[in-house]
Amino acid sequence: MTGQGLQVPTPPRSGKKHLPSLQVLRFAAAFFVVLFHVGSGLQIQYQLTTNPFGLGAAGVDIFFVLSGFIISYTTNPARGFLDFARRRVARVVPLYWLLTLAVIIIALAKPDLLNSTVLTQQAIIRSFLFVPYEKSNGAIQPLLFLGWTLCYEMFFYLIYGLCALASGRGASWLASGVLLFLVGLNSLWPDGPAEWRFYTSPILVEFVLGMGLQEIFSGSDYFRNGSQLLALMSIICAPIAYFTASLVLPGIVPPAIFSALVVIGCLFWKVQKTRLILALVLLGDASYSLYLVHPYTIQPAMKLLSKDASLGLVFLLLCAAVIWTVAISLALYQLVERPAQRFLLKPRPKALLPAVEVSSGSD
Question: Where are the domains of the chain?
């Protein structure tokens, strides 16, 4: 859980390795972030002392642990680095670039709508390349403020892909070592430049947790067979552990513990494919769109709230805004994400070699 704007990228499903419970968790994590931003709006509008949905920020931490797990679980090093990179680009880039372009257009047309976003050539280039920069408010983000988490995701993909190229099946261990080394460097120079602080942040440990859980899950029949009781216990213990750890442990530790326990619970969860679960899996597919677009679809509703509005009216307006946001995210998934992925992952026809006449040597 961090003090920056919130986001997450999410890996695609992969054949027999698709875990429906994790798809449901992806939607839950994105929805947590939606609630967090709703709470932030209420806190500002009504001058509340705390965000009523403050724990929702942990949705980002869940995404990072999930990413570490799923990338190490689904990646086949035998396919090579370029195949891995193409799949990651197809999943993350199209929607992010589209929304970044929308922010640029808004910044040109109505700059007063964007608080700390100043349009410069460097900001545009860095944003499209997933390299954040320090804004005037101190946040280290790209133009699309939620994209700071995507910058971490792409950084993790780069490290994991190179580690898979170097060590094959040992990629998780090597990538974990690299990330922990970077976090260790942060302790040596915690007040370095923005880029240094960003790429050595302790939040990188959450990817390591995800990869570690994958190694345990893949090597344990007991874990893979599931247990509804252990799933329930793990999920119940998650918020208890978070609030307990928050009393004595600093920074990233409490949300990392919370996120790891939630992911463990979902891994133990034996999912029955009911209509409700299938609907939640679809929402999980659209979680990337939900995550990126929700600040811009909820903001109009927040502006309509007056300080003397009744609690019932506030509740109805926010419920309508959330439903509207989910509907838009599903539309973006169907109309932008899926077609873009199909196009970018479409097998390229191999160049045909010209026919060559082979002499029998009996001319």
Answer: 15-344
Chain segment 15-30, per-residue pLDDT in tens: 446 799 999 999 999 9
Q: 181-221 pLDDT, tens per residue?
A: 999 999 999 989 999 999 999 999 999 999 999 999 998 88
- 80 Ramachandran zone, left/alpha/beta (phi>0; psi -120 to 50): left
The reply to whether the predicted model has a pTM over 0.85 is: yes
Contact between 322 and 300 under an 8 Å Cβ cutoff? The reply is no
pLDDT band at 354; cut points 50, 70, 90: low
Residue 352 has pLDDT above 60, yes or no: no
User: Can you tell me which residue has the tokens 């680009």?
Assistant: 89
CB 30 within 8 A of CB 291: yes
